[in-house]
Amino acid sequence: MIVPMKKVTLYALKQDKEALLAALQRCGELMVVETEDSLPQDGCEEATEALKRTRETLRFVGKNAGKKGLLTVRPEVEASRLLSADPESEALQKQAFGLERRLDENSAKESSLKAQSDSLAPWLPLDTAVESLKDTRKVAVFTGNVAKDSIPALTSVLDRFDAEAQFLGEGLSGRAAVLYCMKDQAEEMLSAAKAAGFEQAALPRISGVPVDCEAKLTEEREKLTKERDEMKDSLSKLAAKRDELELLCDQQATVCSRLGTPAAATEYTFRLCGWAMADRAEKIRKAVESVTDAYALAFEEPTEDDQPPTVEKNSRFVTPFETITDMFSRPDPRELDPNPIMAPWYWIIFGMMMADAGYGLIMALFFGLFLKLKKPRGDFGKLVKVLLYASITTAFWGVMFGAYFGAEWFPPVLFIPLDEPVSTLILCLGIGVLHIFSGMAMAMANAFKAGDWQAAIFDNLSWIIMISGLGMLFVPSLAGVGKIMALTGAGIVLFTAGRSKKGIKKVTSGILGLYSITGHVSDILSYSRILALALSSGVVAMVFNLLAGMVQGSIIGFLFSIFIYLLGHAFNLAMGLLSAYVHSSRLQYIEFFGKFYQGNGHAFTPLSVQNKYVDLK
């Protein structure tokens, strides 16, 4: 059901604002909305920056510490611990942040030293100081690189000018070389040398003999490596305290949520506007009274122009299925909640698509243990519960169809789909008709709620009567009654579909209304996908069973067959879950919701503590 909402307005003294926001956050029942004159609290920007730094630090620590195990249990803390940041954890974050910067600096220095070593490598054979390689009064000196296959041509040029060359080591640009020639021929010789493949280049920016410089670079790199190893040891110790950083992240997120609460303020007072569930109004009043008695608190009914958030309150069985509806669109608070009707249908149809008792047992064990150990929350937690509940219908339909890991261990209660596909198709289409009728019934309920009884009777009940009558025509004993029902329903549609039109449009609208039968038939035929998925899953399971049986001629073959069983059925189960989830949702969204559902609601997000990484006691 949709929970009624109240519009909330709170006036209080500005001096009590921080304490009131903390009390309301601890209460977790008021959704504060922004108004034209509202602003976030002082310090919001600084808190947001602090949270950003902590998240970056947490990613850095997590990257080096590795991912947590799938079944790692989250720590439990009191809600009061999340209302403010822990100074010790903040100091730990600053330590980790500083360590990250030092590691980055270390890495940058090491890259720089490596680049210097790479540029110096070709000049290592040079046995004189670099600064001595300069022009003298009569001799010009040129340094550069030459490709290996260009050396003979360059040597020929040097011989022609009676010049000398000192060829050194190989580098990325070729072989390093130092050319010596007489100054009066320098310009002409350099031009000829370049034509022969010589590329002039400056010497590395060092002083002294290159070998000595390389030794110093090596020493500095070794020192950096030692420092990096020490910092990684410190990082390993920090990784063991990742839980403290995660708790700090939740604490800072809670503070940001509170400081980001929009409020309008004057010099001495402030105002909050928002929404609360009607049955939780007293909790908000008590939270305010725990801080001050100087306040004015009003709860009002929403007007037609208001857009209150949507809160759904359902049974423990129905609640997890709300995530299926929310993926399509959250209900509008003024319409009926579709989940109590949708949930059983999704549950049944999902099981029909899987339809294997063995798979149902595996699903129950896996998702049950996952829920118990991992304790997922939010929409993901709801989805896991949906899959756990679906294990029951998967096992049920597996028993009905005699499917146990793709084998027939026991005779079916109904029939085997592979042996009787027509009977299975009729069953699936029958389920589809009932599913669509329930959608039409929801449309009737919404119409009656809105006071439009004509839409309920003429636009929905008429089609239920007509389609039921058409179905009865295929049963000889009911054909007479079916004919009357079909004609009655068709007559209602023909004479009422154009009731809001004038003139000739009344007649044409009635005829066009009857043409809508093609859409309803198409919707019913869509449920044949249930048969297709049930058959495909069963066939794949049988194939893997046959493959495993074919290799069981020896002990090694028997062991290999176990591997085939495990891998094959794990693959089939995973693909079956994905297919059943997608196609069950599709039948809800198109065939079921298409008959009545409007949606377009938005979530109720009250001011509360943020606990992404921890569970609340």
Overview of this structure, please?
With 617 residues, this protein is an alpha+beta fold. It folds into four domains: 1-41 and 261-311, Alpha-Beta Plaits (2-Layer Sandwich); 49-116 and 215-258; 134-202, Alpha-Beta Plaits; 319-451 and 526-595, no CATH class. 58% of the residues lie in helices and 10% in strands. The chain contains 19 helices and eleven strands. The protein has helices at residues 17-27, 44-65, 87-120, 151-160, 186-195, 210-239, 242-259, 281-289, 322-328, 339-354, 357-374, 378-401, 421-449, 453-472, 479-496, 505-515, 517-525, 528-550, 555-592, and strands at residues 5-13, 31-32, 76-77, 139-146, 164-171, 174-182, 198-200, 264-265, 269-277, 295-300, 615-616. The strands form three sheets. Strands 1, 2, 8, 9 and 10 form a five-stranded antiparallel sheet that branches. Strands 5-6-4-7 form a four-stranded antiparallel sheet, covered by helices on one side. Helix 10 packs antiparallel against helix 19 and helix 13 (421-449) runs antiparallel to helix 14. It is extended, with a radius of gyration of 39 Å.
How would you concisely characterize the structure shown here?
The protein has 617 residues and is an alpha+beta fold.
Main features:
Alpha-Beta Plaits; 4 domains; 10% strand; 617 residues; extended; four-stranded antiparallel beta sheet; alpha+beta; five-stranded antiparallel beta sheet
Radius of gyration computed on alpha carbons:
39 Å
Topology, number of strands: 11
Mean pLDDT, as a whole number? 88
Work out the helix count.
19
The profile of the biggest β sheet is:
5 strands, antiparallel
Tell me the series of helices and strands, N- to C-terminal: EHEHEHEHEEHEHHEEHEHHHHHHHHHHHE
**Ends distance:** 28 Å
How many structural domains can be distinguished in the coordinates?
4
Structural class: alpha+beta
| Quaternary form | single chain
**Contiguous runs where pLDDT drops below 50 for at least 5 residues:** none
